Amino acid sequence: MLDPFLPPIPWLKALVQPVCDALSLHTLPLHIHEILYACALYHFIFAYLAPPLSSLLLPNSYTKLSYKSKLRWNMHCASMVQSVAISILAPLIMMIDKERKSMNLEERMWGYTGAAGLVQALATGWFLFDLIVMIRYLDVFGLGMLAHASSCLLTYTLGFRPIFNYYGCVFMLYELSTPFLNIHWFFDKLSMTGTKAQLYDGLTLLVVFFSCRLVWGAYSSFNIYRDVWNALNLSNSAKFETNSELMRFGNDRSLPVWLVVLYMGGHVILQVLNVFWFGKMIAAVRKRFVKVDKKA
């Protein structure tokens, strides 16, 4: 399936082409404009839209927040837009991109479709913005969030070789839990801690987070590890009937050790962080509602 977004900007594509060729990121020139558009959009929401709009609509809540809480509020606003958009787009592409759905082992490893590339580009734009914010406000967001942003940006950027283009949409389903996380955080800042609305959201958050990040994440990680293992042990005589259009960027069908270590290492970090965050979420929900029960 072709990329349904705007076509590449010729001068921008020509500008980054030499660097991308040197780094073997062969499909990146086709999507660099989408990455920059996404990064600029999230920065606009974070820095220029969320602050005045929140002050206007919620003057009694937003204006009383501390400096650090305002930064977190603005970040959650940008995250809400990103997570809702990608949670709609990624499953949609997985359903309607017939070429992607029919990929065999080689195509899942080195194949490419423009539609899956769009999802990958929008995710890369978010993680680029996320990394910039995490570095700039490291004292506010901490090393854990910096590690998360770095790992995700590295993983999705490497995908433009192309490699694992098939899995870009798969791992974006992690974001299905993020809207509920944002809502839960907003409830705290709107003096709605311990309300039934927050309880229902908190329970939904735990169920969705466990399902999409731990269960689906573990299942998808197993699949990608299996594909990597099979590709590494693929004999030269083994032949697949590959779609030439899907494999038009797949001339270099190699798996260097550094690439496997970086990509797989990034996934391990993300899975460890997911388990850690799930434990923190359970503790946070229990802390809020155990107090309510005692008062009752």
Automatic annotation (TrEMBL):
Which organism does this record belong to?
A: Hyaloscypha bicolor E
What does the record list as GO biological process?
lipid homeostasis
The protein's superkingdom reads Eukaryota
Q: What is the lineage of its organism?
A: Eukaryota, Fungi, Dikarya, Ascomycota, Pezizomycotina
**Is the keyword Transmembrane assigned to this protein?**
yes
Residues spanning the membrane: 35-58, 79-97, 109-133, 140-158, 164-187, 199-219, 255-278
Q: Name one GO cellular component term.
A: endoplasmic reticulum
The subcellular location is: Membrane
Q: Which UniProt keywords apply?
A: Membrane, Transmembrane, Transmembrane helix
Q: Which PANTHER family match?
A: CT120 PROTEIN (PTHR13439), TOPOISOMERASE I DAMAGE AFFECTED PROTEIN 4 (PTHR13439:SF0)
The main place the protein resides is membrane
Q: Which residues form the TLC domain?
A: 68-290
The cross-references to InterPro entries, in alphabetical order and at most eight, read:
TLC-dom (IPR006634), TLCD (IPR050846)
Q: What is this protein called?
A: DUF887-domain-containing protein
Task: Give one Pfam hit by family name.
Answer: TRAM_LAG1_CLN8
